[in-house]
């Protein structure tokens, strides 16, 4: 019921820009430019956790971009999944460009799962919703892509708020696994891990570990899976060493 009401209210309630609050538009041109206008770039957190995939992000996590992500994730502005999907699709293209093997294969977007309790509280899984929007955007551009939500939590984790990078890594270590039968599905294309936001990189590193443990041949020629996110801290862009 909760999720259903959010879907309906997103259609009938007055719309304001998710980034700046400007009335009568879901996302104004200026905030759209901040979200996906600059193009995806390789990002690295500091410190960089062991096992972190090569990550591309569409935008720094600040100002309008932060407001749009929080509006979608925490305030039920589900219509923002479309613009966020456009941004994530750009990051996925950047991530896939760094994987020379199997360039003609379809892209398989694997979202990092939210905790079940968080999904119940929000009424939706933000990363999965944005991944579906990104896959649709890629297909409209002629790039075969689909979402495989094969990762799941195998044990409970603590709320990450306030934890240091080291504490987040310890909190998430061994927390994810590939669901039964998921390994077979992962062999059908180039896998790109996706999430809405990278902070310390601990979640993406744990997701990469779980995928690699399930199917070793998913590891790319560079020794890593590739990953894409909508946003990352501005300092992560400053650490770009491409």
Automatic annotation (TrEMBL):
InterPro entries: ComF/GntX_DNA_util-trans, PRTase-like. Coiled coil: none annotated. PANTHER family: DNA UTILIZATION PROTEIN YHGH. It comes from the Bacteria. This is ComF family protein.
